[in-house]
Amino acid sequence: MSPALESVLAKAGLQVTPDEFLDLVADAARRLAPPHPEPAGYFTPDQRAALTDVGLDLSPVTGRDDRSRARTVVAHAVLRDSALSVAEAARTLGVDTSRVRHRLGVGRLVGWKDRGSWRLPAWQFAGAGVLPGLEVVLAAVPADQPALVVAGFMTTPQEDLPVDGVPAAPRDWLLAGGEAARVAALVAGLGTPA
Asked: What is the pTM of this model?
């Protein structure tokens, strides 16, 4: 395997071999939307007719930017690789695994099932605890937003969250003592038109 890939993975803090990482990428690519989806396939015949009547084009997508799909696949693979298992989260928090599952069940932690086991994205942990204000933020996340979108939001600088005059990622904002309510107000808008 390429020493360059090993170096990149090590610098990124990803504790997987290059082969394991490539397997994660291949799995993410299979699980994400196909490269050339047919929008009409997502709707019932009645819905297709109604959407076509109002002028929407439901023909197959072609010629799209495959770089954005590649970025999404890699982001998904990194999110999955860096996520904690229930046991790892329990060790981090100093609690029993049943407490972690309970927190997942009541929305005090976020995660997803992967091959029958919970995976918890690392962005929500800080030191030996959870991110300050996590419960407030998670309560505001729209239910239809997938873990990748939430992780992207929480780790991408936002103009509305300056730290020392520089836009900060919501995670960094909270770690710097910023108000959780401000992050919650922003995260509540995920998935809505600007």
From this structure: 0.66
Taken in order 50, 51, 55, 60, is the CA torsion positive or negative?
negative
* Tokens 């930017």 found at: 65
Which among 107, 113, 153 has a CA at the least distance from the CA of 134? 107
Span 34-65, pLDDT tens digits: 555 666 776 778 777 766 666 666 677 665 55
Say how far apart CA 148 and CA 70 lie, in whole Å. Answer: 14
Three-class secondary structure of residue 120 per DSSP: strand
Residues 31 and 104: their CA atoms lie apart, in Å, by 23
The gap from C-alpha 36 to its chain's centroid, in whole angstroms, comes to 22
Per the CB < 8 A criterion, the answer to whether 116 and 85 are in contact is no
Query: Residue 62: enclosing H or E segment and its boundaries?
Result: none
**Contact, 162 vs 168, CB < 8 A?**
yes
Percent of the chain with pLDDT over 70: 77
Domain ranges of the chain: 3-80, 84-187
Q: Please state at what angle helix 18-31 crosses helix 66-82, rounded to 10 degrees.
A: 120
Task: Check: CB of residue 80 under 8 Å from CB of residue 119.
Answer: yes
- Write the burial class of residue 88 (CB in 10 Å: 0-12 exposed, 13-18 middle, 19+ buried): middle
